[in-house]
Design a protein that fits this description.
Rossmann fold; 5-stranded parallel sheet; 19 helices; 11 strands; 46% helix
């Protein structure tokens, strides 16, 4: 049900004056108010939201909405393991995987981590024979998180080379298999239910590849990462190589659980532990720091302001670091699957805009592709820039200097603009951006960045009154696809029928 008091505050927020960013920077304290450095295990991170249209007046009303929607109570319910995922009747306990949450859940997560560590250490010590490669098979949250972490953290080498495969298109699995030797490769199958069609189809093909490659016991090379361990054993995986995780850990929040197995295999257990520590530090910031000073809440406030008041339908994320190239893809699922809803948690209609479309790319590539629209297009698009102070390479420092200069220049240019009598060369400016500057990119820093965005997404959901932990919207198309594959699908629209016939499906 819509909260009437919150609606009054939303209406008041919509009626506030809208000063420009230049006007807002007339306040000499603005940078100090809206930029904060958070000290974390992987090094400090600067969160600069000063180039957004947040103001004390805007924040006061958003704070009133947060109070009306009981943001603090919902945060505490999340951390305490209450059943906040009401449509599925369970808690959302990803923070327990990081040691923050209900005692029994934290203890269970620690025990499952210890089980995973034993297997990781055994593989690294050669107890399962020579293992040089791992093909990790999953989809959605079971693949996006591992792919991001491995790409970001193993560019200088890994203990075991990991290839993440998610697409049912055989080209993806075939490419991974061509890069590996079946005699020294293990397969990780990541599926919460151990029934996901794409994942299990790829898994069968991977087993065939092992068998055809001369591996006498292909199931002996398989590790299962699942919340349904009995199904993995029934499928053929040895119980000692089944790494369970709790039903209360959602797919797109599961990287901290056994779904992080490929990350631990690539980095070693110490690296994975640091990854968890970085995320836990952000959890503690979310819990301990007053809402008015909380960098997570501030980011969500800006997101809500632009989506609800300025009617911004998209938010752009640009990573000015090649190692974070997959971060926009990861955030697309996190934000759009969590908050792309049309009903409130109680099932009544959502009468406001839900999550904006998250998109982005890598700087400086994106500057030569999409920044024309950001600077001079008719859409107002808030932008997040992410950068790292220490480069991830040993080349001439000029490379990194140019990279960072471009990152900071784009934010400055979006805000300031440049007037011209020639319309084609006129930049209106007053376009918002935020910047996250990490001191270094390491497992703890990446863990902190991901956890920051998890909680940022949760705050937006709590203030809108929606449940960010279900995802029924992904099921309808999958159900129809299964009907087609089983030969039971019929009565489609003429376009779909014609496409199926043209592709020779169902004949």
């Amino acid at each position: 049900m819509i909260d009437a008091q919150a609606e009054l505050f939303w209406t008041a927020l919509d009626g506030l004056p809208r000063p420009t960013l230049k006007d807002l920077f007339a306040d000499p304290e603005r940078l100090a108010r809206y930029s904060a450095t958070v000290d974390l295990p992987g090094g400090p991170i600067i969160f600069d939201w000063s180039k957004t249209h947040l103001s004390p007046e805007v924040e006061a009303l958003l704070g009133s909405i947060a109070a009306a929607m009981d943001l603090e109570g919902r945060r505490d319910a999340l951390i305490n393991g209450e059943k906040i995922n009401n449509t599925e009747g369970r808690a959302a306990e990803h923070t327990a995987q990081r040691g923050i949450g209900k005692d029994t859940s934290v203890e269970e997560a620690a025990a499952l981590h210890a089980r995973m560590q034993m297997l990781v250490d055994a593989i690294h010590e050669g107890a399962l024979g020579e293992v040089n490669s791992l093909i990790h098979i999953g989809i959605g949250g079971s693949a996006l998180g591992p792919a991001l972490a491995i790409d970001a953290l193993t560019r200088e080498g890994a203990k075991v080379a990991v290839h993440v495969v998610s697409n049912i298109d055989g080209c993806a699995l075939e490419a991974a298999m061509k890069a590996c030797d079946p005699a020294t490769t293990m397969i990780a199958i990541a599926s919460k239910t151990f029934t996901t069609t794409e994942t299990m189809t790829n898994a069968h093909s991977a087993l065939d590849w092992l068998r055809d490659g001369g591996v006498s016991d292909p199931f002996g090379r398989v590790v299962a990462l699942t919340a349904a361990p009995e199904k993995a054993v029934e499928w053929g995986v040895d119980e000692t190589r089944v790494l369970p995780f709790s039903e209360t850990v959602g797919g797109r929040y599961s990287l901290w659980s056994s779904i992080g197995f490929p990350v631990a295999i690539a980095l070693g257990w110490q690296g994975f532990a640091e990854f968890l520590d970085g995320a836990a530090a952000i959890d503690r910031h979310f819990i301990d720091v007053d809402l008015a000073e909380n960098v997570i809440v501030r980011a969500a406030f800006a997101d809500l302001y632009y989506a609800q008041v300025r009617a911004c339908q998209t938010r752009a994320v640009f990573a000015y670091d090649e190692r974070l190239a997959l971060l926009p893809d990861y955030l697309q699922q996190l934000e759009m699957e969590s908050n792309g809803k049309r009903v409130l948690a109680d099932g009544s209609p959502l009468t406001r805009a839900s999550a904006p479309v998250t998109w982005g790319g890598v700087g400086t590539d994106a500057q030569h592709a999409v920044f024309q629209l950001l600077h001079q297009g008719t859409h107002l698009i808030p932008v997040d820039f992410l950068a790292v102070k220490v480069p991830g390479h040993d080349l001439d420092p000029v490379h990194h200097q140019i990279l960072l200069s471009n990152c900071f220049a784009q934010g400055a240019a979006l805000m300031a603009g440049s007037a011209s009598d020639d319309g084609a060369r006129d930049y209106p400016g007053d376009r918002p951006s935020a910047t996250i500057l990490c001191d270094d990119l390491n497992p703890a820093t990446l863990g902190a960045l991901i956890a920051f965005h998890e909680h940022r997404t949760f705050v937006s959901a709590a203030m809108l009154g929606i449940n960010p932990f279900d995802q029924f919207g992904v099921e309808l198309g999958k159900a129809i696809a299964k009907q087609i594959d089983s030969g039971e699908g019929e009565g489609f629209d003429p376009s779909t029928e014609a496409l199926l016939a043209a592709a020779g499906i169902g004949e």
